[in-house]
Amino acid sequence: MDKTDRAKMSTMTGSPGTSSQIAPITNSDCEAAVDVLFRSFHGDPTLRWSFEADREGYDDRLRAYLRLGDEWHRGLGHPAVAALSQSGEMLGVAYLMSPDIETTERDLDRLIEDLRRVVGDGCAGRFQKQNAVVDDASPDSESHLLALVGVIPEAQGQGVGSKLVSWTLRESVDHPESEGVLLATGTERNLVFYRRLGFEVVAEVDVDDLHEWILFAEAREPSGGSADGASDASGRRGGGA
Fold first, then answer.
1. Dihedrals phi, psi of 186, to nearest 5 degrees
2. CB–CB of 223/181 below 8 Å?
3. How far apart are CA 199 and CA 207, in angstroms?
């Protein structure tokens, strides 16, 4: 992270209750961001289903997907930010897809092709199936998509996740074309956390034995306290990182 990015932190702070600061993820931060995602999402039901956690090599497949997703997401120009401690440690990350950046069929095909290369045809197919089901059930609106948000285990419960999600809500408020923020999660205990921040469940879907909740928050200033109730959450529509 260069000096310019660090200078932005003072103007990108979120809700009170934590000393962490928000700053953009740069190329030099990508491995640290992938590590945060790996630690946050290792137990995520959706990713465990998609990448076959019960089969040998799950850790390698998960890390390969997260690294590829980070590269794909930021390569298209979508915003991604990190929550940093006062000492500069990365505590959490959020990857947000903006409605004014078009994701073409060619972009999606390239993602799936690369995913097949690093995780195999079976896992890439499961990932694609889950995305298709969530996409079909999601509201048809011009909204931001919260692709991934995660906080390292030792920083959970300190308001870091709330700060990251609040940043996404302010992004939607500041964007003239955005109606709000959309996400999906396969973790039921995350629902209380998101509802406290203004999200409502708009659909529920099943993908084989996996259950997913789709949530939406209208573009408005974030509500709720700074307490963290979620370790991970994801809204993987269109293959966002």
1. -105, 10
2. no
3. 22
Tokens 């209750």 appear where? 17
pTM score of the predicted model: 0.87
For 147, the enclosing helix (H) or strand (E) is: strand 144-151
Helix (H) or strand (E) holding 109: helix 105-119
* Cβ contact 91:152 at 8 Å: yes
Using CA atoms, how far apart are residues 90 and 94, in angstroms rounded to an integer? 11
Contacts of 104 (CB under 8 A, 6+ apart): none
Where do the domains of the chain lie? Answer: 3-234
Distance CA 196, CA 67 (A): 31
Q: Which residue has the tokens 């809204």?
A: 235
DSSP assignment, residue 199? -
Rounded-to-integer distance, Cα 71 and Cα 84, Å: 20
pLDDT tens by residue, the chain, 241 residues: 443 343 334 334 443 335 789 999 999 999 999 999 999 999 999 999 999 999 999 999 999 999 999 999 999 999 999 999 999 999 999 999 999 998 899 999 999 999 999 999 999 999 999 999 999 999 988 999 999 999 999 999 999 999 999 999 999 999 988 999 999 999 999 999 999 999 999 999 999 999 999 999 998 877 655 445 455 555 443 333 3
Pairwise CA distance, residues 186 & 177, whole Å: 28
- The class (CATH top level) of 3-234 is alpha beta
H/E element, 234: strand 232-234
